[in-house]
From TrEMBL, chain A:
Keyword Transferase: yes
BP GO terms, sorted: DNA strand elongation involved in DNA replication
Domain of life assignment: Bacteria
SUPFAM superfamilies named in the record: DNA clamp
Entries under InterPro entries matching the protein: DNA_clamp_sf, DNA_polIII_beta, DNA_polIII_beta_C, DNA_polIII_beta_cen, DNA_polIII_beta_N
GO CC field: cytoplasm; DNA polymerase III complex
The protein, known as: Beta sliding clamp
Length: 368, 469
């Protein structure tokens, strides 16, 4: 392999691919990226056996060929070079890098040991509206569980139906659901995509059309945009029946300003941190009181004006303030809508500006 | 049940084979390769296609692993499986995530959001604190004519504790479901309102608490415990009769709780008016609420109870089997006992609880309460039966095979066998020197008849009532 590429492009691509390389893998080749010079392109392959990335950049290929080299070393070298042409030349298991006055011989491993990583999408792929998907990911990803003991909750559920795509994420304490209305031919398909690949997509996807393919045989999801092809495993298993737990009816609705609510929650969190993050919302006819207490520090309350409907008796509900905070971070409008039945059933949080978004938070149980 | 057992057994052997295969591969590849690729595999299935060939389906955690093993290690895998099974092997690969026990357990645990209200831990702790048995709910309480009234009253109380009927006094014989009904009310109240100040106790516990209080000079604590309750459920209140201090204390507790709007439910084996040595003021207070009685379950109700209990124990019974049991066993507790016996018998003999086994277990009679009935001699039973049917002793002992004589004779043999537990041969000897096979046939016949003939049921109950009230 002998090629010439621009440092700017190569450096950018290696930054991306390095996130797909395994950290401290036992098998040395998994710490490497594979460079493949072919025709007019240099393709950079990286995988950690959970997900993979193939990034192609235009280059001048003199002789085609492949080699794998340690990702970290290569990235560190390339980012520190000055912009301009970089020449890469593979000879046996060594990569010769030269740029201006810089010369380097980097030890690599034969590319034939590198795992097979998908680099093209098949005809079964379809387009997703990237802007809507990005918004939906923003509103769901924060709910994904980190608990590896329940793998099914470590991903986002994609439900395709006649009305479009619905994204659902939950960690067992709260749940986010966002609908993306668009026309699709896929009917009734459900896949759970791991959080990590979605995080990468939300970072990398800027403005381009997004192609997606779900391959059930190999249990893989493939994403393609710009010159990047990403793949990931699909999580096996039965996603909990989320439709069942979304309350069908409610008794009390509360509408209030987001900013004031966010401030009150932030304030109450100061004391709540010492009492396992619990803050109390007391709903009265004329508004909402946010209060928290700490055995050491004391107590505090802040009253907020709110439009309350359907209330018969004052209602006290306790929540983990982090959950409310994170919800408030992702809503677009100026107002927040809350629908409640009692102090033990999940509360429905809504963004009046976005009817396709729904958030559930399980209250913390209070004694007495 | 048998099916799942088979498949788990297969899994074990598959796992073992796979372990052997992996062990031999571990020797021939480097540790890094082994840990990276092979630890992420499992043997999904192993089928023998021909005499000397097996088909192995290897599951890999991701497509990357599958591709790599399929292209690189096909040969070595095939060889190792061949060695482990002594059969030639066709290999297939698939993507399958490995579910270990830990994740399986975590998956079965539900997180708070997905918990149903009934299962929530808090309810269980509340139930435990109130000392209410979790199994007693309205859902598994069968209702029929004999307990409909009590059920309706209990349901009403559970909806509006302290308002509908206060106190609710449930009385009835042994094992008719008084305690179940009362506990169900408690359960429902906890479910509806998460009420924490609710307590289920027997009148004996109440008395003991008072005695303890007097002895340790902590009567005040005892009062606190009972008088602050929102709902007090007292089982077998008749035992409080004759205990003066306990009655006085209960009187005050009763007043405090009811005036504060709390609910009181009592059970007893007889109505308040018939409890002797019960203080007048207590009697009148008990009578102020609603008094409902539950009589012995009728045949249909026993069928329903049998079905419910069988479901709880995980046995599947056909309707004729249910009727057979309900026709021969007269109270809810005995049904429970019978089913337990049936399960253990079916385990012991490795038979499914089918009609033959049920008959066999029924035919053995109830030995557990033989103590009381042993006092009844076989002669008494024979005398009573003869009187009941108004047939001459000579006729019943004789050889007549007319149905009007033979049926009573069979019922008599059935009673001797099942109620007194007399051996078959001995029963034969008592009834005019008959063969033990004749007795066996009679017991079998009546067992079946008891499930579908009302006449026979009535006869059996009638004789039993004459004998043991």
């Amino acid at each position: 392999m002998k090629i010439e590429v621009l440092q700017e492009k190569l450096s950018k691509s290696l930054n991306i691919s390095s996130r797909f390389v395994a950290n401290r893998a036992q098998l040395p080749i998994l710490n490497n990226v594979m460079l493949d010079g072919n025709k007019t392109k240099l393709s950079i392959y990286a995988t950690n056996l959970e997900m993979s990335a193939v990034i192609s950049i235009g280059s001048k290929v003199t002789t085609s060929g492949k080699i794998t080299v340690p990702s970290r070393i290569l990235t560190d070298i390339i980012t520190n070079l000055s912009p301009g042409n970089v020449s890469l030349e593979a000879e046996k298991e060594q990569l010769k890098i030269s740029a201006g006055s810089f010369n380097c011989n980097l030890m690599g491993i034969n590319a034939s040991d590198f795992p097979n990583v998908p680099s093209v999408l098949s005809k079964a792929s379809f387009k997703l509206p990237y802007d809507l998907l990005l918004k939906a990911l923003l509103k769901t990803l924060f709910c994904v569980s980190n608990d590896e003991a329940r793998p099914i909750l470590t991903g986002v559920l994609f439900v395709f139906g006649s009305s479009g795509l619905t994204l659902v994420a939950t960690d067992g304490f709260r749940l986010s659901l966002k609908k993306i209305p668009f026309k699709t031919d896929i009917k009734d398909q459900r896949v759970v995509i791991p959080k990590n690949i979605l995080l990468e997509i939300s970072k990398l996807l800027k403005s381009d059309s997004l192609n997606v393919e779900f391959n059930e045989d190999s249990n893989q999801a493939l994403f393609q945009f710009e010159d990047i092809v990403l793949s990931s495993r699909i999580i096996d298993g039965e996603f909990p029946d989320f439709e069942k737990i979304i309350p069908k009816s409610f008794e009390v609705t509360v509408n209030l300003g987001k900013e004031g609510f966010a401030q009150a929650v932030k304030l109450s969190s100061v004391f709540a941190r010492e009492s396992s993050n619990v803050i109390k919302l007391t709903i009265k006819k004329d508004g909402l009181t946010v209060s928290s207490e700490s055995e050491k520090a004391g107590t505090q309350t802040s009253h907020l004006d709110a439009k309350v409907e359907g209330l018969t008796n004052d209602l006290v509900v306790a929540y983990n303030f982090r959950f409310i905070e994170e919800f408030l971070n992702v809503i677009e409008g100026e107002d927040v809508g809350i629908e409640l039945t009692d102090s033990t059933s999940p509360g429905v949080f809504k963004d009046p500006k976005d009817p396709n978004f729904l958030h559930l938070i399980m209250p913390v149980k209070i004694q007495g | 049940m048998r099916l799942t057992k088979l498949s788990t057994m297969e899994n074990i052997s598959n796992d073992q084979i796979w372990k052997e295969v992996l062990d031999s591969i571990q020797v021939s590849v480097s540790p890094a390769i082994y840990n990276t690729w092979f630890t992420k595999t499992q043997l999904v299935s192993l089928e023998t296609s021909n005499k000397d060939r097996v088909k192995a389906l290897v599951g890999c955690s991701t497509a990357y692993v599958k591709d790599f093993i399929e292209t690189r290690y096909f040969g070595i895998l095939q060889d190792s499986i061949k060695k482990a099974t002594d059969l030639n092997c066709d290999l297939m690969f698939t993507v399958r995530q490995i579910e270990n026990q830990e994740t399986a357990k975590a998956n079965s645990d539900t997180s708070p959001l997905f918990e149903t209200k009934a299962k929530s831990e808090e309810t269980n702790t509340l139930l435990a604190r109130a000392k209410i048995r979790t199994g007693f709910t309205f859902e598994n309480f069968a209702v029929s004519g004999s307990n409909q009234m009590a059920y309706a009253a209990a349901e009403a109380v559970s909806q509006n504790p302290g308002q509908s009927y206060n106190p609710l006094f449930i009385w009835g014989g042994v094992g008719v479901g008084k305690t179940h009904l009362m506990a169900a009310v408690g359960h429902k109240i906890i479910l509806n309102s998460n009420l924490s100040r609710i307590l289920f106790c027997t009148s004996e516990e109440f008395t003991n608490d008072i005695v303890q209080g007097i002895r340790n000079k902590t009567t005040q604590n005892v009062r606190e415990k009972y008088r602050k309750l929102n709902c007090l459920l007292v089982d077998d209140i008749q035992f409080i009769a004759g205990k003066d201090t306990a009655q006085e204390e209960f009187f005050h507790t009763f007043n405090t709780v009811t005036t504060a709007g709390g609910q009181i439910i009592l059970t007893s084996d007889r109505p308040p008016s018939e409890i002797s040595k019960l203080e007048e003021r207590l009697k009148s207070r008990f009578e102020a609420g609603l008094i409902v009685d539950i009589s012995n379950p009728d045949f249909e109700l026993r069928c329903a109870i049998t079905q419910i209990k069988a479901n709880e124990m995980g046995i599947n019974l056909e309707s004729n089997e249910v009727q057979l049991i309900a026709g021969n066993v007269e109270s809810a507790r005995k049904i429970q006992g019978f089913l337990t016996k049936l399960v253990s018998a079916s385990k012991l003999k490795n038979l499914s609880p089918r009609i033959d086994l049920i008959k066999e277990v029924l035919g053995k009679g109830s030995k557990d309460n033989g103590e009381i009935k042993a006092r009844t001699s076989p002669e008494e039973v024979i005398e009573t039966a003869i009187k009941y049917f108004s047939i001459g002793k000579r006729a019943i002992m004789g050889a007549t095979r007319a149905r009007s004589i033979a049926r009573p004779r069979q019922i008599l043999m059935y009673l001797l066998r099942t109620e007194l537990g007399i051996p078959l041969q001995e029963v034969g000897r008592l009834i005019g020197g008959r063969d033990h096979t004749t007795v066996m046939h009679a017991v079998d016949k009546i067992t079946t008849l008891a499930s579908n003939s009302v006449k026979v049921q009535e006869d059996i109950m009638g004789i039993k009532n004459k004998l043991w009230g």
